């Protein structure tokens, strides 16, 4: 069960409790946020929906949480629900959820995390006439499309040819004024010498209110192939997953989702969180959220990589096949996320 599916399950429990008179709430939330438990929490995910409903329901938050807990315990895919603190619901998923997450990711491939939440909505985006704003608008549009929206791009003047040719800024931007343009802190220098991938990362990875750092030359931090460069870590992690698949094929085995052990919980959580990150990136027009998430996936993937292939005369086991499937799923998320940022995900690096 993905976070999006779990969110819908919790929301369904809320609606049923309201419909059947257990909670007297005039307006049911449109969505429920689930996230990994904080300090003092437990299980796989937690939500504060009971605290949100307590005042409108006229009940203490723990009482609201208990109403929802009873209903969630009967939901498919949930093994346990615990109420902690002032009324947080801590949810444990049923056994086999890790394999289902990997299987769902591999089934969706680059579209994992895509949804139809914004289907049918035409969303106008306006950018300030500056290179960083236009690159940001392009990436926001890509993520909005992944959530089902139809974005329209606007600017007060057409993009420069180099921005289109080198950075991949779209040509089909409507040239006309608009209200509330995307206006991040401008690029302090021309980013095109970095090339498309490094330049886009340099402009998108910092939050909009932060000044991007643009250097120059072959020793630039965004071009350096070392661990201090987050773009390199993300692309290297993806390339390693592709190399593992090739090496496994040479050894005669293929990925097969299954139990992978508790030492990869951080990676599983980041993969499960990917749909929520895409939704938040779209809602807040903030590609930096996606960029930071990809770094988190890459960093969580690193400890898994040495244990995927058998060593020496060791024969491939179910554990090796399951870990190979998890690595492939992580690589799929990295490639899909980079594509939404307009950045290439090479198979060899």
UniProtKB/TrEMBL annotation:
Residues 4-93 form the Arginyl tRNA synthetase N-terminal domain. Residues 234-349 form the DALR anticodon binding domain. It is an enzyme of class 6 (ligase). The keyword ATP-binding applies. It catalyses: tRNA(Arg) + L-arginine + ATP = L-arginyl-tRNA(Arg) + AMP + diphosphate. Keywords: ATP-binding, Ligase, Nucleotide-binding. InterPro entries: Arg-tRNA-ligase, Arg-tRNA-synth_N, Arg-tRNA-synth_N_sf, DALR_anticod-bd, tRNAsynth_Ia_anticodon-bd. SUPFAM superfamilies: Anticodon-binding domain of a subclass of class I aminoacyl-tRNA synthetases (SSF47323), Arginyl-tRNA synthetase (ArgRS), N-terminal 'additional' domain (SSF55190). Its EC number is 6.1.1.19. This is arginine--tRNA ligase. It comes from Streptomyces cellulosae. The lineage of its organism: Bacteria, Bacillati, Actinomycetota, Actinomycetes, Kitasatosporales.
């Amino acid at each position: 069960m993905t976070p999006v599916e779990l969110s819908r399950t919790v929301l369904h429990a809320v609606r049923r409790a309201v419909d059947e008179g257990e909670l007297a709430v005039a307006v049911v939330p449109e969505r429920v946020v689930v996230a990994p438990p904080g300090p003092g929490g437990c299980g796989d995910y937690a939500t504060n929906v009971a605290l949100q409903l307590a005042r409108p329901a006229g009940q203490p938050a723990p009482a609201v949480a208990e109403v929802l807990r009873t209903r969630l315990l009967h939901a498919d895919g949930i093994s346990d629900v615990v109420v902690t603190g002032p009324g947080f619901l801590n949810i444990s998923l049923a056994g086999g959820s890790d394999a289902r997450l990997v299987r769902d990711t591999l089934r969706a491939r680059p579209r994992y995390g895509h949804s139809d939440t914004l289907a049918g909505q035409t969303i106008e985006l306006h950018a300030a006439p500056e290179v960083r704003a236009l690159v940001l608008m392009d990436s926001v549009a890509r993520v909005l499309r992944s959530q089902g929206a139809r974005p329209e791009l606007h600017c007060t003047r057409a993009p420069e040819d180099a921005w289109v040719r080198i950075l991949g800024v779209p040509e089909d931007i409507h040239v006309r004024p608009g209200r509330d343009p995307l206006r991040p802190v401008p690029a302090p220098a021309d980013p095109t010498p970095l090339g498309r991938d490094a330049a886009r990362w340099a402009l998108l990875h910092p939050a909009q209110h932060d000044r991007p750092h643009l250097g120059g030359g072959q020793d630039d931090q965004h071009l350096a192939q070392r661990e201090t460069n987050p773009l390199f870590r993300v692309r290297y992690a993806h390339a390693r997953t592709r190399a593992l698949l090739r090496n496994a094929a040479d050894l005669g085995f293929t990925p097969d989702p299954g139990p992978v052990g508790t030492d990869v919980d951080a990676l599983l959580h980041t993969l499960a969180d990917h749909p929520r990150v895409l939704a938040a990136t779209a809602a807040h027009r903030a590609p930096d959220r996606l960029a930071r998430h990809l770094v988190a996936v890459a960093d969580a993937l690193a400890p898994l990589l040495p244990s995927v292939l058998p060593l020496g005369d060791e024969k491939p086991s179910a554990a090796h096949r399951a870990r190979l499937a998890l690595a492939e799923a992580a690589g799929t998320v990295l490639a899909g996320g980079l594509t939404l940022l307009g950045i290439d995900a090479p198979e060899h690096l």
